[in-house]
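User: Could you check the structure of this?
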Amino acid sequence: MSGKHINAAQYWRANLRLMTILLVIWAAVSFGAGILFVDALNAIRIGGFKLGFFFAQQGSIYVFVVLIFYYAWRMNRLERALDLHED
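Assistant: Sure, the predicted structure tokens are below.
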């Protein structure tokens, strides 16, 4: 196998692992904080709003956007490490 083929296989393995981890985090925040733990989180207030309400309405979206930026940053580093970048 050529070096690029090995790097591509490593790239996709790392990509799938990272996507799985980030999707689990997003699901845990969306489902867990917005639905399962909403009653416990509602005991905490931020800016006058109950924390459970915040996560159900806005918090999971903010977490998702942060995860998108993290994914892009991490994949750029991975592409450079495996010499698959487009520069």
